[in-house]
Amino acid sequence: MEKMKFVRFGGLSPVKQDHYTTGKDKCFHNPPRKRGLYAFPYPYIETFLLGATDKPGHISNKTKWLKDEDGNRIKENDFYNFDRKWEKRFNRPSINLKYIKLLKKLNIRIKDIRTIFDEKDETIYVTVLNKPKTFEYDGEIWHHLGRHLKPNQIWVII
What we know:
Layout: E1 4-8, E2 15-16, E3 35-36, E4 40-41, E5 63-65, H1 76-79, E6 80-81, H2 84-90, E7 94-95, H3 97-106, E8 113-118, E9 123-129, E10 133-137
Antiparallel strand pairs: 1-4, 1-10, 2-3, 5-9, 6-7, 8-9
């Protein structure tokens, strides 16, 4: 079997899959193994799909808090200039100039910026996606591509 290239946000060690089940409620969304990892086939990356486990401190290690020069987490309201004219024109708020400088200094791309609601203090903070890891793999994979592939292109995990 030919090796495929994958991209993973977070570590490469298999992690416990919370939705694994062998019961009667099992459906095609449930992973086939107790431990594993989620990865994107390179170069098809959809970061929207990372949202369920992208809080800093999660075992997957996908994100980190964006912190200011003093080591404090940055609040969304401080990070963005919520200017309605800018939002209408560019479809997103502009970033405060001092944080643009911080992003450049830390070599952080704007597309890697995310926000997350912290339930403890009911505040939205800015987070950053960690750099993804690229790897090759030639074993079995679990996917939802069945209806988009020919039968000889589908690998089945039993």
